[in-house]
């Protein structure tokens, strides 16, 4: 059996990737609300996913407020699909 990707096996990182797989992009506030995580924890996990090349993080401004948006990269999409396929092999689906 294929080993599950440890970077994606984290509950919060898996939740982030699952959300981002279904949208073009999501902002930090949306991800924070959907994952019910703290801002600090979410920020750390986004950095890990970004460092791995799985997501793209864009920091900008929306009016006078800072806005951070995230999207899945092609490498991230491939890693997520491989993770899901590995999980399916464990479950015999």
Class inferred from helices and paired strands: alpha+beta
* Lateral strand order in the biggest sheet: 1-3-2
Query: What is the number of beta strands?
Result: 3
CATH class: Mainly Alpha
Distance between the termini: 13 Å
Q: Per CATH, what is the topology?
A: Arc Repressor Mutant, subunit A
Described by the principal axes of the CA atoms, the overall outline is elongated
- Rg for CA atoms: 14 Å
Most strands sheet: 3 strands, antiparallel
Number of helices: 4
| Uncertain residue segments | none
Protein architecture, described:
With 93 residues, this protein is an alpha+beta fold. The chain has one domain: Arc Repressor Mutant, subunit A. The protein is built from four helices and three strands; from the N terminus they run H-E-H-H-E-E-H. It has helices spanning 11-21, 28-35, 39-51, 74-91, and strands at residues 26-27, 55-62, 65-72. The mean pLDDT is 94. It holds the Pfam family HTH_34.
Label this structure with key terms.
93 residues, alpha+beta, Arc Repressor Mutant, subunit A, 3-stranded antiparallel β-sheet, 4 helices, 3 strands, 54% helix, WH-like_DNA-bd_sf, WH_DNA-bd_dom, Transcriptional regulator, WH_DNA-bd_sf
How are the secondary structure elements laid out?
Layout: H1 11-21, E1 26-27, H2 28-35, H3 39-51, E2 55-62, E3 65-72, H4 74-91
Antiparallel strand pairs: 1-3, 2-3
InterPro entries: WH-like_DNA-bd_sf, WH_DNA-bd_dom, WH_DNA-bd_sf
Protein name: Transcriptional regulator
Domain Winged helix DNA-binding: 12-91
């Amino acid at each position: 059996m294929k080993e599950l990707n440890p970077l994606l096996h984290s509950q919060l990182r898996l939740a982030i990737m699952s959300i981002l797989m279904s949208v073009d992009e999501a902002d930090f506030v949306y991800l924070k609300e959907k994952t019910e995580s703290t801002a600090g924890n979410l920020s750390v996990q986004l950095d890990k996913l970004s460092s791995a090349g799985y997501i793209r993080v864009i920091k900008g401004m929306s009016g006078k407020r800072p806005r951070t948006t995230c999207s899945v990269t092609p490498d991230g999409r491939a890693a997520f699909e491989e993770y899901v396929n590995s999980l399916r092999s464990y479950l015999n689906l």
